[in-house]
TrEMBL record, chain A:
It comes from Actinospica durhamensis. GO terms for cellular component: plasma membrane. The chain crosses the membrane at residues 6-26, 140-160, 189-211, 223-248, 260-277. Belongs to the binding-protein-dependent transport system permease family. LivHM subfamily. InterPro entries: ABC_transp_permease, BCAA_transport_permease. It is a multi-pass membrane protein. It is found in: Cell membrane. One of its GO terms (biological process) is amino acid transport. GO terms for molecular function: transmembrane transporter activity. This is Branched-chain amino acid ABC transporter permease. Keywords: Amino-acid transport, Cell membrane, Membrane, Transmembrane, Transmembrane helix, Transport.
From TrEMBL, chain B:
Belongs to the ABC transporter superfamily. The keyword Transport applies. It comes from Actinospica durhamensis. This is ATP-binding cassette domain-containing protein. Keywords: Amino-acid transport, ATP-binding, Nucleotide-binding, Transport. InterPro entries: AAA+_ATPase, ABC_transporter-like_ATP-bd, ABC_transporter-like_CS, BCAA_Transport_ATP-bd_LivF, P-loop_NTPase.
Amino acid sequence: MIWVDAVLQGVLVGGLYALFACGLSLMFGVMRIVNLAHGDFAVLAAFLAYSLISASGVNLLYAALLTVPVFAGFGYLVQRGLLNRAISSGPLPPLLATFGLSVVIQNSLLQGYTADSRALDPGRIGTASLRLSGQISLSYLELLILGLAVLVLGGLELYLRRNRTGRMLRAAADDRDAASLVGGDPRHLYGVATAIAFGTLALAGLLFAARSSVAPSSGPSELLFGFEAVVIGGLGSLWGTLLGGIALGIAQNVAGQADPAYTLLAGHLLFLLVLILRPEGLLPRRSVTA
Amino acid sequence: MSALLEVRGLSVRRGQLLALRDLSLAVEAGRVVAVIGANGAGKSTLLEAVAGLLRPERGGVVLDGTEVTALPAHRRLRLGIALVPEGRRLFPSLSVRENLLTGQYRRRPGPWDLPAVYALFPWMADRAAQRASALSGGEQQAVALGRALLANPRVLLLDELSLGLAPAVVATVYRTLPQVVAQGTGVLLVEQDVSLALRRADEVHCLLEGRVELSGSPADLSARQIETAYFGIRRESA
């Protein structure tokens, strides 16, 4: 029974990994940018929400409703102001730029908030749980997180398929010049992709902090989980990313059940195993083109 | 007489090479102008510079009296210059229908919409859900043409429609040109197949090493003149 519980907990946390990773996948798919600061931006969002909540006393829901759109706008500006310039001179400058941002964010957070980890209080939902049997109970908060993740990934999938701008994002991913020949401004489309990525990473950052806690230095390890979810699932497929996140979550939780020391190792081993046996991932590209 | 599209003294550099030298030509509404020339004569460079993918070193592009030389490709499309690029450049991961819909992203008002393109190429409606990369070369060329038409361009630029396609397929694509021109669209096309260009165009310019070597209406040009200009062997005294 405890093994069933471990698997279920793995599924729940996997949804959050996928939510966090979908922006990573989108930015790489559309612009070939690997955002090394992805995790640090998520942590930054969590800390800003923390400050907002402590200063004004609003609850987590309102903090999220404010933080997510602000981060989406911020993402658009980062793309237009910084990454678009970097990308025009080759693949290396954007990598270096995001690496630089990662260092800047981590150290600024360290300066402003000390090295302590902080948690966001989700309210009553944080302690309530759905009891399935004597040994298995699912936290409502984690169920909500999984639901949100599925909702966001599904919405994003729908946006990329049905919306005209979403369709242009896929077109620009295929062929940037051809997209400009049908009237798409690549700088704007790239901005939209990054805005989506930043909105989703901000939401994921807040949820990370609500279900456990985040510290100024947690960004890179979150980034690693994100990468692993994307690669396990198959580059460029949103449902693949969800599957990858869930596979990663299950591997970590089941191994952690056997011995907590193996939690992270099991995730990395699964990642390496997939790279060796099925390098295209579990569900290779379908929606966003990589 | 003011032309719909004017290319004024265009010089374009490609790397070390000056691919176009002081080239001028004009396209009027409802007319088909063809540019012929050997490989490397600068034909594709001309179209890419007109579409806005390349910046000229000197000279300019004027659309209906508006100077567009400084504008990038996506802005020029919104003003009415659409290019069907060499090699078609469809979006391989998008379906046929989705490829066509991208043409509507920043469309101008006009007669071309999805039903009109399906009427032009009836097979497209049946295969709308297929991936563009699953089509044959000729079918892809037709989709690329449809995608450009959906923007309702005032000037349509066609780069080597015939390249790599069977003559029968090329003929079906070219057969649609009169319907395009009938809407008042000006067509500037580049073609390696000289006889095809002569048959379809109202006016022909022959390019040699980035310069216009010979111009005129197909009826006025002799095969000998064209041959001379095309290969640049014996220059006629001028």
